[in-house]
Structures are given as structure tokens and as C-alpha cells.
Amino acid sequence: MPLAGPWPAPKGTDGVSCAFTGEGATAEGDFHYALNFSSTYRAPAIINIVNNQWAISSFQGIAAGQSKTFAYRGLGFGLASLRIDGNDFLAIYAAIQWAAQRARLGGGATVIEHFTYRKEGHSTSDDPSKYRAKDEPNAWPLGDPIDRLKQHLILIGEWDDERHAALEKELDAYVLETYKKAESLGTLTTQTGINPATMFEKVYEDVPTHLRRQRQELGV
Ligand SMILES: Cc1ncc(C[n+]2csc(CCOP(=O)(O)OP(=O)(O)O)c2C)c(N)n1
């Protein structure tokens, strides 16, 4: 049964949009437009904020401003808002399932803040030792999400080290194979063979004027 409310459940579909953003990007206006839209139209959406505590070199406290948490931001728009242990696979699974079911029943959007930590650099060209204490990553108490899930599954008798090692090997090979396939399509330093016109296609039914102009300028 759909929840009672001024808005009906989404018609003819049980699809739910699931979007992810970093905590740093929540300081951009677009994030607030999304919350406003979701609240006003009771959108069947799950707005996930991955709070890994560092937006490149900016600590989370900067983007948070005067907000107590990032989940807190959803409350101002009347949205259900949760803050969960982002390194706990089962907590994430349960929260997303709950939010999806709620959205399908017409309850609207849910904001979920996943509290986690980025141990490594933002990218391969980033050096975190330039802006945070060198031993900070070692002080993170909530562990590694894959290792935690592995330990849990071993404890309940559903998994073992041998199967884990085999799966890791299989996934490493899959990633390498996919990487090579992607590289074969072209890189920044090689010809891609992909028609640049394709970046203007299959996004808008009616292409906005500024994009039509850009396409003209590119001559494709
Ligand atoms: C409007 C804009 N400003 C700055 C940047 C440069 N930039 C790229 S990633 C990034 C940090 C994003 O941090 P966060 O949103 O927390 O996501 P994370 O990468 O930590 O997952 C910044 C500032 C950008 N891409 N766009």
C-alpha cells in the first residue's frame, strides 16, 4: 500500500534513482537543488553522500560549514536522513533497501551519509602527506569494508580464506582485462577513433542551444 500523503506513488514504474556524491560537492548549489527538487516532487530517489572526510586537500569540516553532519542537510528539506557506518557493507545494504522500499511506496527521497575515510590519495597525482598528519590513516578505527565483510562471513561459516584469495585473483584479472579493453579504444595520448560528435548525442531529446553552438564550433 502506498503511504498516505499529498503525492501519489510514482506511476507505472517501481524504478528508484540512486545517486552518489562526495561530502565536498555538497557545498555546491547543485546539491541543494537536488534536495529541493526531491522534497518538492517527492522523488523516488536515494541521495548518497560518501563522506570520506577529505575533498582532495579540504577537510570535511570546511564543506560542512555550520551543519552538524552531512545527513543533517536533508532534514532541512523534510527528507528522511540517515548517517551510517560507510565501512559496514550490511548497514549500507539495509539502509539502501529501506530507502528504496520507502521510495516505491511513495514516501519520497532519502538522504544517506556514509561515514568513511579515504586512506590513500584523492588520485595518483595527489600527495596527502602535504595536508594531513602522516600517521592519520593508521588512526582510522573503522577498518576496511571488504575485510570486515570477509571476517563476518567467515565467522558465520559462509566464506573462507581460500575462496577469498581465488575471488581476488579472478577480480584482479577481470579489472586488468577491462582496463586493456578500455585502453584499446584510445587514450589521451593515442587516437581514439571515436567520433567526437557522439558526446553531443543520446543525452537530450531537444539539444539545448549552448550545446548546439559548441557542436558547431567543434565542426562535427
Ligand atoms: C566546481 C568544481 N570545483 C572544483 C573541482 C575540483 N575537484 C575535483 S574533485 C574535488 C574534490 C571532491 O571532493 P568530494 O566531493 O568530497 O568527493 P571525493 O572525491 O572525496 O569522493 C574537487 C575540489 C571540480 N571538479 N568542480
CATH topology of the largest domain: Rossmann fold
**What shape does the CA trace take?**
globular
Q: Provide the CATH superfamily of the largest domain.
A: Thiamin diphosphate (ThDP)-binding fold, Pyr/PP domains
Percent in helix: 25-40%
- Class inferred from helices and paired strands: alpha/beta
N-to-C SSE string, H for helix and E for strand = EHEEEHHEHEHHHH
Major β-sheet profile: 4 strands, parallel
Give unreliable regions as ranges. Answer: none
Which strands sit side by side, in order, in the main sheet?
Answer: 1-2-6-5
The fraction of residues in strands falls at 5-15%
User: Cα distance, first to last residue?
Assistant: 51 Å
Number of domains: 3
Q: Can you tell me the CATH class of the largest domain?
A: Alpha Beta
Which architecture of the largest domain would the CATH scheme give at its second level? 3-Layer(aba) Sandwich
What value does the Rg take, in angstroms?
Answer: 22 Å
Mean pLDDT: 93
Number of helices: 8
List cofactors, ions and other ligands: thiamine diphosphate
Number of strands: 6
Model description:
This protein has 3 domains: 1-140, Rossmann fold; 144-184; 190-220, no CATH class. The mean pLDDT is 93. It is built from 8 helices and 6 strands. With 220 residues, the protein is of the alpha/beta class. It has helices spanning 29-40, 60-64, 72-75, 89-104, 136-139, 145-155, 161-184, 209-218, and strands at residues 17-22, 45-51, 54-55, 58-59, 80-85, 110-115.
